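The freezer alarm interrupted the setup, so I double-checked each line after restarting. Inputs confirmed:
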Amino acid sequence: MNRGFDSLSLTVNGTTVALPVAPGRRLSEVLREDMGLRGTKVGCDAGDCGACTVLIDGAPVCACLTPVAQAAGRAVTTIEGLDMGPLQQAFLRHGAAQCGICTPGMLIAAKALLARVATPTRAEVEEALGGVLCRCTGYSKIIEAILDVATPGTPSPTPAAGHAVGARVARLDGGPKVAGTEVYGADHVPDGALLVRAVRAPDAPMTFALGDIAAWCAAQAGEVQVFTAADVPGENRFGVLPAFADQPVLAEAHVRMRGEAVALVAGEASVIDALDLAGFPVTWQACDDTLVHANRADNILVTGRVARGDLAAGFAAATHLAEGEVSTPYIEHAYIEPEAGVAWLEGGQLVIQACTQAPIMDRDDTARVLGLAPEGVRIIPAAAGGGFGAKLDLTVQPLIGLVTLKTGRAARMVLSRAESMATSTKRHPSKMRARIGADANGRITAMAFDGEFNTGAYASWGPTVAGRVPVHASGPYLVPAYLASASARHSFSPISGAFRGFGVPQATILQEVLYDDLAERIGIDRLAFRRLNALQDGQTTVCGQVLQGVGISACLEALQEPWQAALCRAEEGNAKGGVMRHGVGIASCWYGCGNTGLANPSTIRLGLTAAGRVSLHQGATDIGQGANTVIPQICADALGLPLAAFDLVGPDTALTPDCGKTSASRQTYVTGKAAWLAGQALRAQILSLSNMGADARLALTGQTLVVSDGAGERRIDLAALAPGAQGYALMVEETYDPPTTPLDADGQGAPYAVYGYGAQIAEVSVDSVLGTVKVTRITAAHDLGRVINPLLAEGQVEGGVAQGLGLALMEEYIPGRTENLHDYLIPTTGDMPRIDTIFVEVPDPEGPMGAKGLGEHVLIPTAPAILNAIRHATGARITDLPALPHRVLAAMRKASR
Amino acid sequence: MSPYHRPATLQEALDVLARPGLCIAAGCTDLFPATGARALNGPVLDITAIAGLRGIKAEGDDIRIGATTTWADILRADLPPGFDMLKQAAREVGSVQIQTSGTLAGNICNASPAADGVPCLLALGAEVEIAALLGTRRVPLDAFITGVRQTTLRPGEMVTAIVIPKAQTGGRSRFLKLGTRAYLVISIAMIVARLEIENGHIRTAALAVGACSAVARRLPRQEAALIGGRADAGLVERVEAALITPDLSPIDDIRADANYRAEAAVELIRRAVDDLVTGAGKVAA
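Predicted 3D structure, all chains:
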């Protein structure tokens, strides 16, 4: 409804248009909604993230902070105006785009810099990009790409058949990300789509009563429809773990957390955008409930426990003891894409295209809420502009689905940054204490751990965190006597759910800090102490599982030389005197890939078309981590055809079998293994058809499949084969489910079939008067078994380090207070250290071609390594995270008393 | 829909301003974040098209910074070393994007306790030029900002320039900002120092601290203690917490606690003063 305004003349990417728009409208809105140029992304509407950066007369501005009137008559350049030239090619080549949501802003900011300085220095690049936040990459690859524009290095490889695995292949879905054409949750807008907004609780716990909604609707400037809990046709309850599902889509009479939705308003975008929801007829009443859910006594959702060996005897045998407590705050995922999506009806089926990590779970839960059969809902995951765990849970899906079902019209919803932060899940705040004993020789004899994790208002992944923490809190070490418990406790606060590591990063902070205490007491080098206790092949974990392919020793060994060099650097720095104190820290990690002792299968369908292309039905959502590239790489080598012969299909619940959720570092391993099995199965079919031996080579020339060995050659005309039910000349479908066993009451069993391992060294400089910490270098050694794609794997490490650095030094979500990206701080370009990545390849007997998962364990050692480095530099022991300057200074003083 | 005025002359702007309830908009880097709306709320007077309101020029005994002069304009301007602190602040305001759009006058009108421009302007003795239909007045900056997001700007008035007496721009200057991350950061504390040195001694000293009180403050006691001191490595001995912290009223918030803020301000003053007289030029917060 932009009628009634004089036309403004806008020149965007060289084309001048006259638009009847409100002069005070954000330029970002005009570009996206009025002109359909959705390459410009909106992450915060406050100038905090820079995703909406465009050029006006060559200078970078945030389009969200620019009234369109100020752009009139000037030259606006957006991502759509870039020419896919050397800059964008460099981004592709370097893996600079992961999820890709910040990529348009990064590219535009870089364009402005390169127009000014053809060959910028690293410092100039960092400053030019300082206003664009990225949550995936840790910025390394973005900066390298820009530095590489003037003198392009090695082009991306296009590996031959059988050589895809191990190659630094540029991401196969990278083109649209650097072109700005990728479709995220807010980017697909069918004609006539209604806009949906939610009326949300101002505080909690509260009860509420709805007022005269009809009268309120009638008083609005245009037609508004309102939907409440009474309109929910199915079961008004959802949750990622069916046994614990407890969250209403729309609250019924009382709310358990600030930001909980109680009603939806829907209508034309111009009407809905302009509504003042503060006037919505709802009466709030504070209440003094203390129990969050009536059926969960003492607010305990779940307590997880692992017990092994004789704890008392273990501690009795200890010569040295370390004991301590650590607390960590809520951590926000802070992906740059707030949750968004669109729903519509197609042939009687409800179709939802929204950002997600778990399409099948979305389908089943949304269908139940809406009273539909699962087949009544089709989920087409939009590209996810970052996920890190929070987009495993339903967000907008049931809300827009409800509006579409009720109105018959397409409906879209785009959360604001504040809504996203108030309502999305978080990393669990934790309060943990632990005690670890070691004998005179430095061998660990016993460990006790107890953690309370604030799981917030609803269950979400609280049970998973409570289950994973006791399994992992030992670290990748041999601990003969062990007792660990972790409880997930409700509060009337934001929901804690899944966030890269499911509680393990918190627990590892405490364990690794205490390991430094022990090493000091024993008088042994901190790395040597860890090597002494590192779990070996054939040894038993705290769950009683005997492991093979254990890579922690190899990681620690790889760090031996960097460790000595880092200690020398710190010593030399400190010898110079001055206020800066230099220190080095180390920490290890391990991480079980996939669900904990539960089935979590993936199924891959692979078809050979009559035209001679390979269709890979890949249902794993690529949230930036690289499944769309890594899974085809594995499949290509299993099949024996080049990557270039592959076309990706999906993810889409109508087109792809279930590949489970993108979480728990499981896709490379679990879906990768299914892809490997599918490739092998199709290869076996072809070999059988051609009567050739296992070593035969495959090649596709047009519609002819050529199978050859040293002795002869068979040619299969694919077009001549009768197509199967799915339309393919040849087709296979293979499923893989990790061999695990459920844990018993003592947490004994085989919770995971594959683990990843790693260790990192952090080097820091601490200002001993101001308490500020600068991380100068991270050396990260990770065992991911066979490295499928080193380029993407490095990107995972660098991004994980950035999140770990944020966890250690700056991130703290305070409900109601830091619901924006200027009070909630995540690292910028200028905060990131040099990162040296070392890949250790200890093959896993179970993983595809020996591969292990990577996505989560990369984050785990960073924060404890930094905290250990701060302590090495200054003596300061940080027990309440993050290590803000005033806390560091206070801890230094406490240490020197 | 609310009207949006974007006049080309100051006279037109002042005519429009005579109507009640107008929101004055320039860089919009504070106005837009304050609303979740798709467009600026309320009747708006956008002053960015007014000819002559943008730019920095010398006028008699003053240097005049027009109301729509952006941070990026300040960074590019040819100014004497007394303004270095303002340029350093310009480089640390938000991000390059914010610096392109945001204005110095908007920074003072927004009156945040953590406004990066205010300590610099206090240490330059800045005055605020305010226009209304009935005439123009000039107010010292410390009388213009009266509290957290409070100024003495009256209905019908707008800031047209920041005026800096040349007499208060001598010497060299430094701006130090302390935050929890590198870019796009709100200060825990920030300080500026401007020292004029004559015959090896401090002739004038202008010091100010931001983010440690509701409004940034000059430090008259500490300034007096520096005057006459030898401009060498020993000068820093004259920096004393007792001369600084009584002028501050820091608070505890999510970024730091009050005691830390006060201590950090003293340390930053010490570093800036030392840097200005020893010329190391490498000091950082």
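Quick read of the result. Chain B touches chain A through 46 residues (CB under 8 Å).
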